[in-house]
Amino acid sequence: MALPTKEVLGILVDNLKIRKCVLPISKKAASRWAKDLKIPKGGNTVIYTGLMYQLMPYISALVSALEKMEGSFLLKFIKLGRFANKFISISSFFGKINKHEVEKHNKTLYIIANLLKKSGLDFGYLYDNDLYAGALAYDLGTDEALNKHITKVYKTLKENNVKRVITVDPHTTNMLREVFPEKIKDFDIEVKSYLEVLIDNKIKPVKQINGEVVVHDSCVYARCENVIDEPRILIENSGTKISEPEDTKKFTYCCGGPVESLFPDKALVIGKERIKQLKKAGKEVLVMCPICYANLSRSVTSDDNIKIKDITDFLNEAYLSEK
Amino acid sequence: MYKLNFEFSTELSKFGAVDLYACYNCGCCTAICPMGLDILPRVIFRHALMGFQGNISDEKESIFSCLLCKRCEESCPNEVPIAGNIRTLRHYINCEEYNIK
User: Fold this and answer.
1) What is the DSSP string of chain B?
2) Cβ A262–B88 below 8 Å, yes or no?
3) Does residue B51 belong to any structural domain of this protein?
4) Is B10 among the domain residues?
5) If you measure CA to CA, which chain B residue comes closest to A179?
6) What ipTM score was computed for the predicted complex, to two decimals?
7) Which residues in B lie closer than 8 A to residue A225 (C-beta atoms)?
8) Least CA distance to B87: which residue of chain A?
9) Domain limits at B32?
């Protein structure tokens, strides 16, 4: 029995309407990554996470639960689950959140903030007002809920006098840079990815790394946002060679992640196809999207003999020298 | 047997930007789709264009399986907004069939 698309979609959308995010995450957990960084609250320029990295452990738990439910008698209760979710979040029943995964993604955000500081950027953070940008709701075509949500997000940005946001992942970049201006009249906030800012600010490496890495481009960065050269310049400036996989740059091959919340089995098949291409190119793969990281990590096996890393792990060593 | 709705392609535009006419049905999208959908974008668009509304209902799984990765758009000779069309079809299904708004 396939997963009931309608009910899974319904739960995600109800969460967005009731809890401001497709999967509920506490404000404290969402901003925990910044607790030791003393980033000023608010400001004209802010780092904007859009909660994508913070959400990944919750999405992993959901995907894992859905995988178990496929073909099981539990599917009969999902309608009841959707009804109950309107009153109490049922996400905690999906399974335990992996603490290592939480720490991994919090560290990624910590590194990005430190890279921006190192590049000389003066920026703030919205803490509790750093809201989910709505990427999944947009992709799933739930426009009524999305439109209401992004109006709230924009209002929050304006109330905080934000003029420029620095994003940390491709999906939030795309939402704020392309979708918000389409849907919100007079949208006037400048949006840049942290990778673009690091290049604009001419960040210099502190360490040369002699090695070779494979770059897996995110579909959204490569085909929607034209963020293709920036990661490559940052990698090559630190002395590391790049090995390109068979499908790369504008023609990159999807990681499969975008369908993992509705069709985890299909997402895994696409992920494994991409892994075949990546392992032909090298042993260390750098990704720049939390969804790519999650789905490729899920698709790789020890027999593949490759490591999937977020690009920030590399940049941390080359530009901040903190391994 | 399905009932035809000749106004279907026009009705779809109420749910978002959609351009079904631009598709030549040439198959360049099909050739490089990572998902290898059971029902391909060009077939879905042709069904919508010809008013086969019932077929669209049956093709929900393919419509929601699209990765929206836009790889197909890179090789489309007529710049069909394939991912946008799919998103609009999802919005239509959510509103008219799933009652998710």
Assistant:
1) -PPP-TTHHHHHGGGS----TT-----HHHHH-SS--SS-HHHHHHHHHTT-HHHHHHTHHHHHH-----HHHHH-TT---HHHHHHHHHHHHIIIII---
2) no
3) yes
4) no
5) B84
6) 0.94
7) none
8) A141
9) 17-96
